[in-house]
Records
---
Amino acid sequence: MSDQTQETYQNSRLYRLRHSTAHILAQAVMEMFPGESQIAIGPPIENGFYYDFDLPRALTLEDLPVLEKRMCEIIAGQHKFIRTESNIEQARKQFAHQKYKLELIETISQTHTVEGTAEKNESDVISFYTHDTFTDLCRGPHLDHTGEINPKALKLLSVAGAYWRGDSNNIMLQRIYGTIWSTPKELRQYLWTVEEAKKRDHRKLGSQLGLFHFSSDIGPGLPLFTPAGETLRHLMESYVRDVQTRYGYQHVWTGHIAKEDLYKKSGHYENYRDAMFPAMTDENMTFRLKPMNCPSHMTLFKEMGKHSYRDLPIRFAEFATLYRYEKSGELTGLTRVRSVTQDDCHIFCTPNQIQDEFALALDLIQEVLGRYRFTDYRVRLSLRDDDGKYVQDDEKWRIAQSALKTALDNSGLDYYTEAGEAAFYGPKADFMARDVLGREWQLSTIQVDFIQPSKLSLTYHGEDGQEHTPVVLHRAVTGSTERFLGVLIEQYAGAFPLWLAPVQAILIPITDRNLEYCQQLRTTLQDNGLRVNIDTGNERMNSKIRKAQVQKVPFMLIVGDKEEQSKSVSVRLRSGKNMGAQTIDEFISITNQQISSGD
Amino acid sequence: MSDQTQETYQNSRLYRLRHSTAHILAQAVMEMFPGESQIAIGPPIENGFYYDFDLPRALTLEDLPVLEKRMCEIIAGQHKFIRTESNIEQARKQFAHQKYKLELIETISQTHTVEGTAEKNESDVISFYTHDTFTDLCRGPHLDHTGEINPKALKLLSVAGAYWRGDSNNIMLQRIYGTIWSTPKELRQYLWTVEEAKKRDHRKLGSQLGLFHFSSDIGPGLPLFTPAGETLRHLMESYVRDVQTRYGYQHVWTGHIAKEDLYKKSGHYENYRDAMFPAMTDENMTFRLKPMNCPSHMTLFKEMGKHSYRDLPIRFAEFATLYRYEKSGELTGLTRVRSVTQDDCHIFCTPNQIQDEFALALDLIQEVLGRYRFTDYRVRLSLRDDDGKYVQDDEKWRIAQSALKTALDNSGLDYYTEAGEAAFYGPKADFMARDVLGREWQLSTIQVDFIQPSKLSLTYHGEDGQEHTPVVLHRAVTGSTERFLGVLIEQYAGAFPLWLAPVQAILIPITDRNLEYCQQLRTTLQDNGLRVNIDTGNERMNSKIRKAQVQKVPFMLIVGDKEEQSKSVSVRLRSGKNMGAQTIDEFISITNQQISSGD
């Protein structure tokens, strides 16, 4: 969740609903183990709540329905949530038998001391919330009474271990996760989403579809792409390349390494060193894997000779694999890797061109996101505030921020601004897109940069006869091929649209004597630009069809004697739908139509 | 020159001709500085000869015609080359005033001692060749007499410094380079080739055409490609990719780094470490930039799970940039770089499939080389001999060598074998292709590998129910994008064929009022897949045409009011030829025809 979203959530009814339900869960658990339960903390979280306990025995999944049932009874009791306040000393007495609560009270008291005067202030106010028989140390807020909760919108989900205060040196507690919504419909929707997200997990699907592998021989976070996975990469990058070319971007090639000194000049060494791979040093020179393209693109801009204002804007794009030394514990499938192939672009322009270039980039991003069926997105426009960290050039900031706002206003895009969230070198806009499961991903980004061009001494010859420093816009549309592919696998549940499917059709001969005709068909289809395989295996037809469905191949073309005689194929879809016999020309026309529609 | 070519050359008349001419040069120089010249050595070399001298003054280019004139007189004298023999002692007397010759005689005498008995054998035979007044310490062979030389086929070329015995601790001598051919026509052809090679130097043309730059900020041997250069790279790689796909190759992606341990397992660390970039080491792990793709492709093969003999052959191709730590003194433009994007392929197959797979690779290579107008090539087939270095599996060698020979015989390709030139892990075939200047380049290569698959524990399930180690064929077709682009720039003298030209046509508006029509035309041409620019500069039309010619743009499309009214363009070629007015459809049809013909 972004900070802004987080703040909105904390003020919402849903937040109070979840918080109150967590208290009810704690009551139910304490009743299950009378006098033997130690309760820790139980906050609302995104999509639900949890509570941590120290109990005489391990909880099992069988306990959850029992607890749920008791929670429903408590809810039915319509107990008021009553806030009371006391001082530290009273709080200690209240929770005399709850050691975790006592520890929390000590922390609160110490915090008060540190934050306030040097003396301890034992009269500091501590709040409790009580409903029915249960009282918790709690800031609130809560619902008015338990009856506001719809018990049919409640579900306890799982039990997990969790260290007290998240510290692995502490005792391991038992955490119960639950979820609660305003209506049973919302609960059903959420549970479906969770189930669907599990099914769509790109690591699971990536393996099922045979798209990529990680190997301990290569290293963590460094995926290897199979032929099917590489085909996806290639199609994705070729598509963006074509769009970029149409929008007047030029593609360049700057390799994968540069001298470390370049990153000292650009400022990356100072600010970004921890994310860089270790140095390669010989007696004369130190190299680094590129963590960013910008210093290389700017160096090329310089090497190409003098530039006039009439040559601007110049837009350099490159699909370059960058290497970032993410902590191995933070690596996740394709969405967090160490080899990051960015669809990166740097636009060199005059300050007056910022608005047009930003607008052009907005158009391009909308076109590309639309092609991938991302239509529900909003733009977060990050501006400066009065913090001293920002580059001190008020005029530049004024021009750039106003250019970005005007372009966004003209675009009709849904956007919101966040002051103080700009990079220190300039304002930026990020596209936050929701996938079909409603999850929000940060994909595209456009950043204005006032600093790096001058650090690397870039200039252009202005209309006034003077040398000026160009502004650079950093722009990524899908972000990186690896991460975006991870997102796409989940967005499509592995069933890629026809234009993107690594194998678009699979020919299934019913008998061996149909194999030759299948080979002719494959050639015809390949000549028409389709990616086609033949399943020559020994299995029976139905098992080949099932296999193709698991592989999510869009079309299965079944070919027996009947089809061979009538020069046709029997077409089935991965959904299971049977389209019946089609001539090969009819089939090609179906696919052409579907590809050009983007489906 | 290859060893075999070298041997053929040493037995040729051309070799004797050049050797004899070198002696005549030495005589002319000694006569120019009577009693003051010390002569060193003067061998025939590829395309000519040289002789090194220690002289009382520096030679200048003005000396060369004087020497040439005297050489012609000596030639006209029809002096016989007479061989005489003597022992070491006599040789010392003969060259008592020639200190370099004396040093050579001492070396010969020491060599004899070492090679022969422990005692010095002062009676060892040393040969001299004498013509006219000049005698040289020399093994020969020579022409019969100076009159066999055609003085019109002789040219002294240059003077350069050269250390005695090539050792920079020794004195610097003066070297005169010359060339001599059988006929004046051959001389003219050779001088044209030299001149043309200078004009075509890819470093010079690369800069003139704005294709690539080197930057001291990035590092030696690490080119940056401009939009035009990247377009070339992209077209070259896309073309080979398409051909490979048509031939049943599958493309994979394996990134640019791997753990160093992988190269220890594969054997590269032991044999190839010096060519690798320095290691990247953190506390837990050491990475290396990939110097080769094979270990990564083999790792992917393994990670993809169990393979059956029915799945083979599997052909993995990748355009991966490899990094090789060439010595900075040996880097040359694009033909010797540190970032090497190989069009690399690894074919996993059974021993019985070697012949078919090798034949398929031969076909593919011929198709690709033909597309780039390389039609004059021969194949060097490197086989094993009885050296102990070769993998000891006679049966495997027998099968593989016979498979390669049979496939070459069937192909009708011009090939020759070299015993003892195979890699220790298997036989190989290299394509030696001549460019339009007759220079030979080693381009494509196919290598059989018996070793690495077993080092990396690759297996497949055989028809016999047992696990077997697959054979791997390493195959590169153009070698690397960088080096091949360097070769192509020289092959085409920068005038790329239409399908490969970064900019295929440039629209030149005669006045500003024709600009809008030019923009419409550009859109139409781009929609037809052409790469088109508009020259919007302030210069006059003729200067724009000249600029486009220097840039070697295939078509200049001049657009004035007349053209606008008749919906046409006035077409000029980079050769200067004027094709007159063409409608836009006519022009598109011309380009389509030319592109599909490969011109």
---
Amino acid sequence: MEFSAKKIAEYLNGSVEGNKNTKVSNVSSINDATPGSLTFLANPAYAQFLYTTKASIVLINKDFKIEKPVNCTLIRVDDAYNSLAKILELYNKYLPEKKGVSKLAYISKSAKIGKNTYIGEFAYVGENTIIGDNVKIHPQSYIDYNVKIGDNTKIYPGTKIFDRSVIGKDCIIHAGAVIGSDGFGFAREADKNFKKIAQIGNVVIEDNVEIGANTTIDRATFGSTIIKKGTKLDNLIMIAHNVVIDKNTVIAAQSGISGSSKVGKNCMIGGQVGISGHLNIEDNVKIAAQAGIGSNIKKDKTIMGSPAIDASNYKKSYVHFKNFQRIINKIEELESEINTLKKKKKK
Amino acid sequence: MEFSAKKIAEYLNGSVEGNKNTKVSNVSSINDATPGSLTFLANPAYAQFLYTTKASIVLINKDFKIEKPVNCTLIRVDDAYNSLAKILELYNKYLPEKKGVSKLAYISKSAKIGKNTYIGEFAYVGENTIIGDNVKIHPQSYIDYNVKIGDNTKIYPGTKIFDRSVIGKDCIIHAGAVIGSDGFGFAREADKNFKKIAQIGNVVIEDNVEIGANTTIDRATFGSTIIKKGTKLDNLIMIAHNVVIDKNTVIAAQSGISGSSKVGKNCMIGGQVGISGHLNIEDNVKIAAQAGIGSNIKKDKTIMGSPAIDASNYKKSYVHFKNFQRIINKIEELESEINTLKKKKKK
Amino acid sequence: MEFSAKKIAEYLNGSVEGNKNTKVSNVSSINDATPGSLTFLANPAYAQFLYTTKASIVLINKDFKIEKPVNCTLIRVDDAYNSLAKILELYNKYLPEKKGVSKLAYISKSAKIGKNTYIGEFAYVGENTIIGDNVKIHPQSYIDYNVKIGDNTKIYPGTKIFDRSVIGKDCIIHAGAVIGSDGFGFAREADKNFKKIAQIGNVVIEDNVEIGANTTIDRATFGSTIIKKGTKLDNLIMIAHNVVIDKNTVIAAQSGISGSSKVGKNCMIGGQVGISGHLNIEDNVKIAAQAGIGSNIKKDKTIMGSPAIDASNYKKSYVHFKNFQRIINKIEELESEINTLKKKKKK
């Protein structure tokens, strides 16, 4: 795939400064670009690289002032970062698209398969499952019985989606994700053995949700574990039984949410965060990476630490923690001064 | 599946208060139940919902005193929570059961397959492997050569069980779990390169163990990594080479145990806990979520923090950590008072 | 497989003390060895077990002085631990080797497959993919289109390797690993919805790299996520888009590295470590388990804590944290002494 500066500028409603026929076939970052690649300048901290970059084309904001001669063709746009995102999307569309239903897939006779679907080799689609239009079920995926998958959803290889799960439209489920495994529920008996509590609920994933690679979402004990519209989960996340995550929340990799907790809308949760069970995290909460949440969190809070507290409070306390030896020295000094004062007294 | 109050009461040895013919086809929680569903009241904190619930049937303890009229049919039982668990189990039994050996599975001729087994599509069973009776090997599972799997064990889709693993009876291995991958063992050489230490041991999982989705259990360098009877591991857990976990221990999601550590009986380990290598965690130890264990732990201890210490000590210290700024202010006050005292002295 | 002391000594350039015809078929640790097994004594702390072990053969350092009679055959070697590693490697070579291309695999006609490869049942190899010589692609693996895999590399069952990934020679990719899933990149729009940033880059893994079970490595947004020569990653690790990890670094299980961070050569990173995005961790850095890294780290540093600081500093501060109640008591004492001094003053 090769694009000229002229064509790219047209696509982005931008204007070319330099050779309109310059061609690129690749996207790079401005500091390690090679000839034949397109790059962008959005962060002023990288402005220095504009004058030395080997990229052939640079996307640049309309109002950016050039201070030295440049070796590349520039395309002036309203917002260089957004324009880059559009170019990435365009590039993606030119990648080969997978189509058709493989003869090497297993599809139950009672399953209903929409139009224009892709079902790859060694994929399994169970009884009475309903697959929407334009759905892509990549090789070696497992879709159990009575599952519903909405239009345009992509299921990457090796994903497992268990019985009675409901997946919305325009979702992306990455490789190796497990949706609908049993919740972790046991009752300890008098003899110390654990008796399994049957897990008869399901998982509901609404439209436009993205689930990361090897992430696991357990089915509800009864009722549903729910991930609402537009929420994005990164890789290796654990969502326990009966958790509900509201709309447009993002959760970074390796975080875990314990049974029956609720997470609000528009929350931003860092990586490796742990949230205990039966909690309520309200809307717009921000949680720093590695935090441990053991109590309800009110809306709009930013929290940090394990157990997590208000982030600015945590940071202050942590500064003192780092200086703990000096604080101890100070206390010892004070003690010795008091002793001196006491001795003087006696004299 | 629809059940009447009469039938449910008979099954639970309970007694009906209200319409014996009320039917339910679903289980819900008391606060968001819909008509046609059964619920339960075990936790007194939820008692208020009894008078407003839309559930058709509520399981309730024999001795519970009703204070207002209710709209639903009640079933009085000895223990409402236990009775609910029984209902969930009953419901589970009515779900469609998978049976038979698929023609699309690969089964080595030298493998021995027990009676009444299910082997799903695209599953792989290697040479000389022995599968017990009533075992369910779901689609796309991988069972290597010389593996033994005991009666009634369930292996969910996409599980990988490597050569010479031994899995007991009545176990459940959830989707995507990896059992018997190589231990992480290397020797650093003079040129800074790492040389792999061959990992020739295996994994032994005793009876009635549950292993969560995408959990990984490495084979021993030599000898066995062992998970003993009745122990339950949640999702995304890492068990390293030569670890031994004793009976009836539960470990929550995303915890990791490093090489050669031993964990005792009846331990309760929270989520995202890390245990260093070559340690001994004795029986009945409780470890709070996100704790980091760097030394041996005596039996019956409850620990918290990273590095973990006695939990009540940790909590006390953490209260002071949260108040660190105030403590610093206090120290500065004392310092200024001492300075005042010293000045007065001089006068 | 049974080996005599004579044969083992020859293989290791060692000398036998005792019966040269003693045979072993197994490897055990010295304290729980059974007859018929070989063990080793490298750590002096285990020397006591030499006189009671039930092992038939013990590998022992040339200069080790025996203080009591032993019941086993000894083999004297230059370095008992290295010799054991050689024996494990030898044992490994005798295990059955998998060969041939299964008729139950799907291999695109445009893929180029090297000599002496193994491609197992239900494996998928996409268009234009190039597989080197002696490569082993175990059952149910997924190798997408335009992938390159170097000679002698082993791909364990259920691994997924996405389009345009480049994997070097002599690599080992363990079961369930996902290489080349989309990076986690979104732009928040005015209406609070997230718009996906297309991820068009790839993953490059150089020679002699080992990737643990269920570990995920995301493709770059553009350009490459890179794991360099000789680096070893344990299980359940998350490597985000555009991360670069230099040569011969080891990372223990469940650690995560956020987008665009760079990790230097010869680093040692413990388990459950989190590294934020866009950071630079220089060569030879050591990071303690569970540390959280939020800033650049200079070479040769050893760090600990979350946020991580110099390890010796962290340890000192943590000692005081554990004693926080006593420190508070001391401050209160000082306060009361100052009050006493002030009162005396007034008199």
---
Amino acid sequence: MPIPNPEQLSSLLAVARGEEPADLVLRNGQVINVFSGQIEAADIAIHAGTIAGVGADYVGKEEVDLAGAYVAPGLIDAHVHIESSLCVPGQFAAAILPRGVTTAVVDPHEVANVAGMDGVRFMAAASQDLPLNVVVMAPSAVPATHMETSGAALDAEDLADLLADGTVHGLAEMMNFPGVVNGAPEVLAKILAFGGRRLDGHAPALSGHALNAYVAAGIGSEHECTTIPEAQEKLARGLYILIREATNAHNLHNLLPMITPENSRRICFCTDDRIAGDLLDQGSIDYMVREAIAFGIEPVTALRMATLNSAEWFGLTDRGAIAPGRAADLMIFDDLSAPTARLVYAGGDLVAETGRMRGESLLPSSPIPATVGSTMRVNWDGVDFPIPAPGAGPTAQVRVIGSLENQLVTEHRILDVPVVDGCAVADPARDILKMAVIDRHTGSGMSLGFIQGFGLKRGAIAGTVAHDHHNLVVIGADDASMMVAARHVGSLGGGLAVVDSETILADLPLPVAGLMSDQPVAQVAAAYGRLQQAAAELGSPMHDPYMAMSFMALEVIPALKLTDKGRVDVEACEFVDLFV
Amino acid sequence: MPIPNPEQLSSLLAVARGEEPADLVLRNGQVINVFSGQIEAADIAIHAGTIAGVGADYVGKEEVDLAGAYVAPGLIDAHVHIESSLCVPGQFAAAILPRGVTTAVVDPHEVANVAGMDGVRFMAAASQDLPLNVVVMAPSAVPATHMETSGAALDAEDLADLLADGTVHGLAEMMNFPGVVNGAPEVLAKILAFGGRRLDGHAPALSGHALNAYVAAGIGSEHECTTIPEAQEKLARGLYILIREATNAHNLHNLLPMITPENSRRICFCTDDRIAGDLLDQGSIDYMVREAIAFGIEPVTALRMATLNSAEWFGLTDRGAIAPGRAADLMIFDDLSAPTARLVYAGGDLVAETGRMRGESLLPSSPIPATVGSTMRVNWDGVDFPIPAPGAGPTAQVRVIGSLENQLVTEHRILDVPVVDGCAVADPARDILKMAVIDRHTGSGMSLGFIQGFGLKRGAIAGTVAHDHHNLVVIGADDASMMVAARHVGSLGGGLAVVDSETILADLPLPVAGLMSDQPVAQVAAAYGRLQQAAAELGSPMHDPYMAMSFMALEVIPALKLTDKGRVDVEACEFVDLFV
């Protein structure tokens, strides 16, 4: 919250003293007090978006009788990539505000990989005037490695600029944890540029001495824990544990049993990556709170983890609790055993009611700069899908990415594929498909390979959501479908498509950095659903082949991946030939 | 902790990784983990004053086997006026470091009233190179009111200067709570100058709407709670509760029953004002921890209130826990049911053992500027003690300050005093003594009155410790003793004295601002003991007449007080005549 001026503070105090009427008084609430851990019957007086007083005997210009409903502080998502919802910030807000989530700490890592500083600044600008309080952290690992072509690189100086001009609050997940642990100079430079600020972590399975080094460097949180021993060790070493329940990573139920009265203050909730449909159908942090309570966590404790704890970790002293001087971000609900927002106030305004936004939609008010809105720089002359296998017999032995359902890691398989007319080809009957990654940032070229697990009997899927570089990825059963899919995504300015031969079965334009739609979130979710259905009709057994595809080009997660520069043996950290 | 440079961080990480030997490894400790709430058997590796790792398998250049002793983070005093110990920072440190208190958040309010900005800067400079980590807050109410002559006035601009040059961390106790609540512009200016920083509170018995206003203004803590309902209300409104156990204000045992697993994270410990003898005999925050445990608070919870909680309130992310990257401030003890420091490490150095400092004494290294070291500017020509009572009969009706044992409030009494040779005089038989307050800052003059409760049968006591202005106060049975006492304190350059006619019975020079001795703390405590004894021999029934005297000139605490400008009816907030 910006520091008020004397007049603003003075009138807030007059309302707090009860000498001037409040803008709004919410009467007869059962207020979740995250400080005392108790629930108190009280009224809440609100002035200019801020809570002026909690107690009795306030008079408001407007008064609402809550008739005993519960009032919690607006929930906080402690770590989320808005881009993963496939929506721009305004529509992401439209998805989560009705859930009672009023603050999101975001890492614009994806758009930064596409559009660099402009991408980060666009996300901050597009979030600025929303009723959702968006706290932007600086993406710490752009690009992920030099084995890919990304749209931008951000060094320590860039990140320091973002801090200096107030765009960012701290440093987002430090994914290059080996670089931190080993003290790589360019990584330490980023850390030191954020001295005294909050530094989020990302260090799957890090333990022992290496974990000590990671924490000693100043990292203060971790959201990658998957097991209780891992989370307990990290918590004991001083990291806030941000329990994650993403679309593609489900840690909540595994970790709930670790929560005790002694350690709960060091635990927060985050969603990390959630697609629009999950946000609309299941919810966001509110879903995690309900699940925690259903598991047996005391409701006030669960709500405290989703509010005060995150506010404390990030030093957001102006929110996270229902108290004078804090933002009037409130989630009002009726069932303490399963909090589901009925009314949501953000900055003192009623923004959502019974799960729906009120009033005008939340389209971003800021213009989309060309560097963000026009990011398909494919050199189409260089796009071609045949894989010549000179000198091969009827089959050729190749490396195949073994994709595993609901996992980001892959297997590094060696298989024979048919050779037709001198080219190695897909073999849909054995679920061996072709995969291409096409540089869409600089038009430098593309690479090709084989993949198993997607199960398409025919056709192709393509998309520009591909961590972390977000190049154009195509997976298909035949070259013609792949070309149509790739070109269609190109014509959309980025997005997702599923193609059967010449026919576009479904698509979702993502014109904002090739990552986000600026259409209403419900439309995005519906289009995404049609994409899934079409892929299933083509034979894919996967729950979400597009999500799966988006990790097949991510060369920091083992074992075999394909970037626009070639096949990467992740453990060896080197490029490998297709043919064995 | 200052932000390290790349080389420092790099070598810390090498030690954390176990690739370089640590400076020191403490083996086989039972480590109090304030994050998990558990006690874990572990080694602690220390590099350059910082904890590099917690766990096993570290090698140190020096290794110490703790043989199962407990290790807690160094304790934090969340609010203390060093001046109240009557010692300079170095000797205050020598008193509390052996207790395991390694961080003190200090408000140099007293020296600021005498020596202004120079006083604040002196305290910061004298604290800088100590093994005690001193966090200086900016005194918020200098002077207390305009009904006294103080040595300095600090306005919002002054305080902003202290913040800008790094002297202070936040704003110390906002004593002018009516000014905050009512939005007095000069008070709000101070608050706004510290926007985003920590603002400590001081608002005895504030409640309801006024409390809401106080919190809405941005105040975040309170150490003046005396009852559980008061503390519960303040905690629920969002204030950290700093439970205080001072020499002159005992709140600990009254408030211990409020502590619950749900609210303990919002509760800290502080001493506020403790004389040297109490620190040496009873202890500091360590005493509070022992008393809390004896009362029934779980030991790790009690230690956590004395460490992590205070670190969190003040945003001291570099200490308050035993974890990588935090200062190697450690308190090692043997009895979990009554933690008493056996070894104390500060910044990785063993600074105290079995209750005593090791090595050289802790005299301040910084020179004492003249504005701090030479503060007795009394105009002795204007010092005279007779109280003419023109036209009075054998007695005159006067206002008498009714001093009450162990209370800062006084009664406003109307009594007859004898008139001798045309002057109203003391009547020791009825315990009516004369009191004088002499401006020692500008030499503008003095005022006279009567007081009951000090019980001197003869002689006088005098001193320059007199909240908040710290003028020269004299209380005596006869004018001659009062003059000798006053002049002796003057000749000491400030201090305390007790006199019987021409004889100095005992004294304690306080040449630093008339508030602090630069002698060893044990000598200060001994001299203070002799002062008490001498006052008792003169007939005073008070436990500590010097402490009592130091509040008799404080015109912000009811009912009748005497400043150098005259008698103050505190409730009416106006000067009143001596004769009724």
